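INTERNAL TRANSFER SHEET
From: sequence group
To: structure group
Subject: Neutral metalloproteinase

Please process the attached sequence and return the structure record in the designated field. Keep the field labels unchanged so the import script can parse them.
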Amino acid sequence: MRRPHIRSVAVAVAVTTAATGLAGTAFAGPTKGVERSAASAATNATVVVEAARTAAFAHTSATGISKGDELQAQDVMIDPEGARHVRFVRTHNGMPVLGGDLVVHLDRQLAYAGVTSAAAHAVKPATTEAKLTAEQAATKAAKVAKGDAGSAELVVDARGGAAALAYQVTVTDDGSSSTVVIDALTGKVRSNTPDADEFLSPKLLDEMRKQGETADPATGTASAAAGLLGSGVSGATGYPATAHGTGKTLFVGSVGLTTTATSRGHYQLKDPSRYGTETRDAKGSYTEKFSAGTKFTNTTNVWGNGTTSNRASAAADAQYGITKTLDFYKSTFGRKGIANNSKAAQGMVHWGKKVANAFWDPTCNCMLYGDGDGQMFKKPLVVLDVTGHELTHGVVDATAKLEPTYVDSDGNQYGEPGALNESLADIFGSNVEFYAKNTKDTPDYLIGEKLGLAQKFLRRLDHPSLDKLEGTIDYWAPSTYDTEVHAGSGVSSHAYYLLAEGSGRKTINGVTYNSPTYNHATVKGIGRTKATAIFYRALTRYMVSTTDFHDARVATLKAAKDLYGANSTEYKTVDQAWAAVNVTAANTPAPRH
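Return from structure group:
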């Protein structure tokens, strides 16, 4: 489950076009372009950003930019065919704008080619004079979120078709935090959103308790594999040095892990070949600081024993899952790290006491894995597709920042943008399995199939409504906008499966699928590789924080046109796949943003 961190928008207070931080994202894309130096990339990024900003102010009727708005570039994408896309966050009179993000599209000649905007209206509030003081807003936020409030910052809340003056407050309590937005005129709570990303929703956990469901997955499959055991060091002339060790995991058997030799015969679970990606031991604490975790070190370069009796077993699963996710994104899309900035991905296992969940935590900028509560969930939540799912939330946070429309008092999230986020995490999480090709975790279109649930999976992409625990849906309806995000995720996950594999019955890697369609039409898939390329390009180029399922249809059509042409079979199949889940141009609702 994703709990978005709205506070990330608050960085948008400077509008200088420094190339710092942009060079690493300047040439991201599903197709690898020409290699260029960092200096060249930074220079080109600066030129593209200036052109996009100029275009945004020159086309105000389309972009919604108004007097007092300023734009800060967050991402620059230059496609091999020549298109340019610049993702901006916005301030208005110096105040961060929530829901003010937009992507400006340019052609090869840097001419304006269109815009994708989260707000379909100007973001100018009726007044900039607050009636509440910052102290009053902070006090109310602390009461609402039941914690200690930080300072209150004035923002413009442009979400939900509004343009209201508000305060944004971060509230912390026992190692967790929430972002609370308080109306600066009325004192109304506009949103109260926990910041951590959880795999399992409160609603699901409640349903499992009602049904007496337990998850006790099989472990201990980590028998020694030929060629894995050992502590080889790659041509070390000094330390630290790259070494090759073995992880004896809980769920995926014995696997090779690249580690760091810190001195002769001493090793650390840190991968220097993947930006220093590392897993640490939280030792039951609730810390959101990776530096507070304890390093995993040993003298054998063998990590774990395949059971929970060894604390390093879960760490081996986590490190394997994180590095395979990084490898998937880099090999498939040329993406260098979760935020495409060539920085380490991090994980902490044994987080908290009896925590039945796993999290993507933007405060920590890392994965946090609980050990299970010992009752419903009896093992650590370190299975491969959980890691791929949660790290994909990090990718979404670094790109479209899809957010739910509201969160109830129990922490359950609702709304199509949040459901789309969950769907993308499932889509790319399943792709991590296909990329890894691990014989102990057969690649499939099932999510959480190794958690040990009675229904044999948590969610599935081919026929989502077979998930009875969450009540996932197969097709879109007007009520979908108010559906819990995991249940609603089935709409776009189903569309993706139909695009990749088509409708009807088939067996893939020993798993039987039988995907239905809303209109009883037959859809012939274009293959997983092409479908995945289309959805990734749509996410990174054409989705913003408010993108719903009909917007996602348009985004994937644009992506298919970019990659394969408007008259291509791929483009036509995208349209067919969405129609097969009842998302069409004809039933597009009126804009809510």
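Handover comment: The longest strand covers residues 69-78. Confidence is low (pLDDT under 50) at residues 1-38.
Transfer complete.
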